Amino acid sequence: MTNQPSVTVIIPFKNNINYLFSAIESVFNQSYKNLKLNIIYDNQDRTDLYKIKKFLKNEYKKKLKLVKIEVNKSNLGAGYSRNVGIKKCNSKYIAFLDSDDLWKRNKLQLQIKYMEKNKQVFSHTSYCIINKRDKIISSRVAKSKIKFEELIESCDIGLSTVVLNTNFIKKNNFYFSKIKTKEDFVLWLKIAKKIKFMMGINKKLTYYRKVANSLSSNKLISIINGYKVYRNYMNYSISKSIYYLIILSINSLKKNLY
User: Fold this and answer.
1) Residue 239 lies in a domain
2) Over the stretch 190-208, which tens digit does the pLDDT of each residue have?
3) 133 lies in which domain range?
């Protein structure tokens, strides 16, 4: 539909190519049609690059004009790779999807409609957690409204559920931070300081894949970067940073118990 606002989907990729193929399929299976796909290739080994191009040519030949592949000269990490996509985006909205996650067919349709109707620059949704075999093992519920004071204690926003207004983040120079994990948490906190509420849609529209041995599953790295969020990016004192890190860790533990 020509009257649909334009959306660019940004997928950073480093490995697990079969998951990426599934992620791409979930993008092109969207009921929402005014979209483009930007894959940020972040692996210095170019073997998978050829496979991705071959997959797209074989499976989505008619949609090739909608796809752009940006190849990083060196490994930048997922956050900085998303920044590459953001800077080159000229759509009204940006949607993030990690290469091992999936979307339900009506994800963008419902989310963009909600944002347009309510004039929102940010939104996120509830999501399911799946394992490597696509089996649902848990879920997370998106609160209808989250303010900064709540977000600082518990990051309840799934990255692959987020849609942002492009002009809003570029105007405010909001980009992902340098740390390898929790880079999304830093960005959400910056946005939460700028707007009154982070708006959520309580519909499970995304499948987040929990993979063993990933950066996000490494507890020590998660604790270290959690501290950096408060100390380096929020500029809190050492004691205040440790206090919020403890609160964040307790809330994370509670979520993982369900």
Assistant:
1) yes
2) 999 999 999 999 999 999 9
3) 7-256
